[in-house]
Amino acid sequence: MILVSSCLAGLEVRYNATHSLNNKISQLVDQKKAIAVCPELLGGFSTPREPAEIIGGDGNDVLDGNARVFEKSGRDVTDLYIKGAYLTLEKAQEYHAAVVVLKEFSPSCGSSMIYNGEFQGKKIPGNGVTAALLRRNGIRVVSEEGISDLLRHWDTDTVPAFHE
Fold first, then answer.
1. pTM score, two decimals?
2. Which domain holds residue 76?
3. Is 35 helix (H, G, I), strand (E, B) or coil?
């Protein structure tokens, strides 16, 4: 089973109520070979919501208590990001996810790059909170940018469809 960021499946759950549709990911969801999750909605956010960035490090630092997640207005939303990360981990474990495909640059889902905490569009290497937690628990995480390479080396025909 594969877990994917809901926005990549075409759901309008991003902070600005848009999506980041990836046709390959949407197809996997339609075939019931992937399940869409949004760590931020699981954490208690609504759509739309204010943009947020990690200040003081990356998702690993947030999990270690050395960095925080703030909305652009200055509201500390770290606890909601951590809650969403843990609920996403529970879903990944429940469905025995072999891989989780997350939206790059997000403070939750970034798997190699995130915004730097200055709210000026600058990116730095690092993990979002959810990506960091999943990796700490031995779950493979890739971004939407890595989905083509993943699918090229992985036979999705052998992935069983899930049944609700």
1. 0.91
2. 2-154
3. strand
- Estimate to the nearest angstrom the gap between the alpha carbon of 28 and the chain centroid: 17
Check if the beta carbon of residue 35 is closer than 8 Å to that of residue 3: yes
Total domain count for the chain?
1
- What 8-state DSSP symbol labels residue 50? -
Residues 129 and 15: their CA atoms lie apart, in Å, by: 16
Tell me the residue ranges of DSSP E strands in 10-55.
34-37, 52-55
In a domain, 121, yes or no: yes
Is residue 107 included in any domain, yes or no?
yes
Per-residue burial over 42-80, b = 16 or more CB atoms within 10 Å of its CB, e = otherwise: bbebebebeebbbbebbbbbbbeeebbbbbeeeeebbeb
Cβ–Cβ under 8 Å, residues 40 and 48: no
Q: Is residue 164 part of a domain?
A: no
Q: 124 burial class (0-12, 13-18, 19+ CB within 10 angstroms)?
A: middle
* Per-residue pLDDT tens digits for 60-69: 999 999 999 9
- Domain assignment present for 146: yes
